[in-house]
Design brief:
357 residues; alpha+beta; Aminopeptidase; 2 domains; BioF2-like_GNAT_dom; PEP-CTERM_FemAB-rel; PG_Glycine_Bridge_Synth
Length: 357
Amino acid sequence: MNAPLLAKPVALRIADLGDEIERARIGAFVHDHPEGTPFHLPAWSVAVARGCGQKSHYLVAEDARGELTGVMPLTEIYSPIFGKVLASAGFGVGGGILAHDPRIVSQMAEHAWALAQTLKCPVMEVRGGPLPGPEWSVDDTRYLGFVRDLAADDDAQLLAIPRKQRAEVRKALETDLQISTGCHADDVAAHYAVYAESVRNLGTPVFPRSLFSEVLREFGNSADVLVVRHDGVAVSSVLSLYWKGIVYPYWGGGTRAARALRANDRMYFELMRHARTKGCKRFDFGRSKVGTGPAAFKKNWGFEPKPLAYYDRVAEGAKPRDASPVNPKYSLQVRVWSKLPLWIANRAGPLIAKGLG
């Protein structure tokens, strides 16, 4: 019997995402790979680079025929507060290495780590995918993911929601709220106003408005904004991505008025309804930290949490990066930020948030 074949040699390089043919090749590879996510798409890397001013380094592996065998989106992120990190994928909850042959995973990971050293990034973060190698630390206790199937219609969707939360949704459906979806400038403006107030209230800085605009521009018909209004005033809003029959409500929030109006409950139910019209079969509620209010909220909707595996590698003498607002050492800053006048938070926030990644 023949001995197992060694992994075939591959060529590793940084892709030119300014080349439309290159982007199309990568996009097709990501689409066909069973573990592909929107955060692996070139559109995501380009939108993040333009929207936050961070640099993309999209790693690809090719065989001797020039066929793609692996991809890894990388974002070089700099923050004057938190330092430099090379992340896969920057500003995404997913990422990591996509490869047809698991034997080239370590080759790609080593190439990415060498790139991090060249870029003077002391830390690499990989959000999902296979373990890059034995040198990497694994964290599967911090974040939870929430995904489930969409029901066939509104009645079935209501019945799929646990009783207590279902009652809240029914009340929200009876409230006089106006719903709109789109991706025009007015939609982005309404979404940004709501989202900025929402994260300020939580004590965290808001991302640059350009990030949302660029994501909507790059994803085209595969992204939109759903806005909930009361008496013509936006009170809840969510920017969602649509990918391979899955809806990803990614950036969402509500104003202080949203709670009493149950506008967030209405928003997510309306998004489920809207996603079905776009042919979606699954609803990805995103990630939340273990033990937090957002995680409990998603469980109340009937979503079963599943641990997410993230990996990091830290240069000798350096420390892992932790820019999480739930880190106790930032508790004072979070409290102070939540009390800032909105106009100050909206001017200062993007300068900080564009380096969080």
